[in-house]
Design brief:
Keywords: DNA-binding, Transcription, Transcription regulation. Residues 1-58 form the HTH lysR-type domain. GO terms for molecular function: DNA binding; DNA-binding transcription factor activity. InterPro entries: LysR_HTH_N (IPR000847), LysR_subst-bd (IPR005119), WH-like_DNA-bd_sf (IPR036388), WH_DNA-bd_sf (IPR036390). This protein has 3 domains: 3-86, Arc Repressor Mutant, subunit A, CATH 1.10.10; 90-161 and 269-295, D-Maltodextrin-Binding Protein, domain 2 (3-Layer(aba) Sandwich); 166-266, D-Maltodextrin-Binding Protein, domain 2 (3-Layer(aba) Sandwich), CATH 3.40.190.10. Strand 7 (191-195), helix 7 and strand 8 (219-224) form a beta-alpha-beta unit. The chain has helices at 3-15, 18-25, 29-43, 59-86, 106-116, 129-138, 201-213, 227-235, 280-291, and strands at residues 48-50, 55-57, 90-97, 119-126, 143-147, 157-172, 191-195, 219-224, 241-244, 255-258, 266-274. It is of the alpha/beta class and 296 residues long. The two termini are 54 Å apart.
């Protein structure tokens, strides 16, 4: 049984005769009659009572007709969904992000996307940068706001720079070098709190690189997995930190966020997505992200 069989049954029921059904479908009358006979033979039930002058549904045919209409409607809906998905109007997107990397306009990007695509189910998944790379490859998220990819991931993922985040020194407010700008060599004797390399390898490596360029290896007092925890440890007096400036940071009376004199004291925020799973939805979201890039 195929969809055309169902269409023929519906057409005969709606038109009241095989000849009129054939004209409406632009199919030969003999073809419709043959296909209906084949259908009845296949299912073992007579769907129509036939005389030389008329054709009408049997009781079994009336019940079959109800289900045939439902099936044809479902098939039409499936085609419509597929076409709307191709146009980027429906579907699902899972967005990975990390709290230390999103800015003031991130909520507006999400709201704007939902306004433009009300039929798309949008999920936000918070995870560290390195965790996003694995989640993208595994298919657990569709796009990530993350840091520059390590080489091992670059063949499977596409990525595009969103903005450069300035790296600042986070110091107690009463530190003698506040308010800066600060030459990194002046921090050589300080204990450092660093983000974990396991979760934020790009930032960890950048901090080590900046310190080495300034002529020293940082004395690591503690590591932590997220931006807010590193800041908390600095606030607790464990050490000082070098971190990308979080655009959502709340000013505190206890800490100062001081610029550095090093010309390369910055790191990229990037959006990344699987090379083999791009879609109109992802393209639309990337356009929004580009538009809001400076404050995302």
């Amino acid at each position: 049984m195929e969809l055309r069989h169902l269409r023929y049954v519906v057409a005969i029921a709606d038109n009241g005769s095989v000849s009129r059904a054939a004209r409406s479908l632009r199919v030969a009358q003999s073809a419709i009659s043959e296909q209906i006979s084949d259908l009845e033979d296949e299912i073992g039930v007579a769907l129509f009572d036939r005389t030389h002058r008329s054709i009408r549904l049997t009781l079994h045919g009336e019940l079959f007709l109800l289900e045939a209409r439902k099936t044809l409607a479902a098939a039409a809906a499936a085609v419509d969904i597929a076409r709307r998905s191709q146009r980027g109007e429906v579907g699902q997107l899972r967005i990975g992000f990390f709290a230390g990397g999103i800015g003031t306009e991130f909520p507006e990007v999400i709201r704007a996307f939902r306004r433009a695509h009300p039929m798309v189910r949008l999920s936000l998944v918070e995870m560290p940068p390195a965790g996003q790379w694995k989640a993208l490859i595994d298919g657990r998220i569709d796009i990530g706001l993350t840091r520059v990819l390590e080489p091992a991931y670059r063949n499977e993922l596409c990525w595009e720079s969103v903005r450069e985040d300035h790296i600042v020194a986070i110091l107690p407010q009463d530190h003698p070098l506040v308010p800066g700008p600060i030459n990194l060599s002046d921090l050589a004797e300080e204990p450092f709190v660093l983000p974990s390399r396991e979760t934020s390898p790009s930032v960890f490596d950048k901090v080590i690189e900046l310190c080495r360029e300034a002529g020293f290896t940082p004395r690591i007092a503690s590591v932590s997995s997220v931006w807010s925890s590193v800041v908390l440890l600095v606030e607790a007096g464990v050490g000082i930190a070098l971190l990308p400036l979080n655009l959502q940071k709340e000013s505190t009376r206890d800490l100062a966020f001081c610029p550095l004199t090093a010309p390369n004291a910055s790191i990229e925020l990037v959006m990344a997505w699987p090379a083999d799973r791009d879609s109109p939805l992802l393209q639309s979201l990337r356009e929004l992200i580009r538009h809001h890039a400076s404050n995302l």
